[in-house]
Amino acid sequence: MILDAHVHAWPMEASLRTDRTYTPKRAFPVGDLLRLLDANEVAGAVIVQPSFLGTDNRYLLSCLSAYPDRFRGVAVVPPETTVEELDDLRAGGVAGLRLNLLHGEIPDLRSQVWRTFLDRATGAGLHIQVFAEANRMPRVLPSLVEAGCAVVIDHFGLPAADCGVDDPNWRTVLDLAGDPRHHVKLSGPYRLGGQAAKPLAERLLAAFGPARLVWASDCPWTRYEDRHGYRDCLGWLDGWVPETAARRAVAGETARTLYRF
Fold first, then answer.
1. Is the overall model pTM greater than 0.90, yes or no?
2. Which residues contact 239 (CB under 8 A, 6 or more apart)?
3. CA distance 40 to 228
4. Model confidence at 50: pLDDT above 90
5. H or E segment to which residue 233 belongs
6. Which segments within 28-141 are labelled E, that is strand?
7. CATH 3.40.50.2300 is held by the domain 3-258
């Protein structure tokens, strides 16, 4: 069974954030996503709230409600979100909360408001999904670990292109391997600044093992929409994880447990 751990979906009538750093060229509604998954024999997927929708998770939640057997979700919420609201998200099929720290200031995750929020998220059984370059990870991951969060790292952890596996900041991602609650996504190689993804996959596989890595297509490849197809993404996994049993875990078995399919 193949499960895609990172996709996006949004409707034509979506209300976009005014301070967004990216504007999609076209809508990608859940019907289009389902047709793509079915054509590639993918059993289910994790819909991640895109940055340009901000904390308006209504469409995400509607997808989870309409197709509870096919989708799980990762939402974006403000740190003031209440325990009851987080519990409702969990009950609605949300498995994690995304911190998109690729742009802008890094919040003080040790402040009272953030510590309270992280405690609430952990209590609700929601992991924290981190999207950030490796040079930001030392300012982010220790605080999340101290708060007791389960962490999922987006897109290989984005080490610097001129350093790759030798990036000292990426070491902070590898340090998560000592705790079985933490996971990394093998996804989005086109976001790596031109460096090869296979050496990163090999290092992550050695550190975390296949039971702590998940594959994702990153469909529909925001900012890179016209450069890839879904079959390309499946083919990349064959090269990154050549051993059959390990690839089977990364392609679906790990995600089934992590996202509670």
1. yes
2. 198
3. 14
4. yes
5. helix 230-240
6. 44-48, 71-75, 94-100, 127-131
7. no
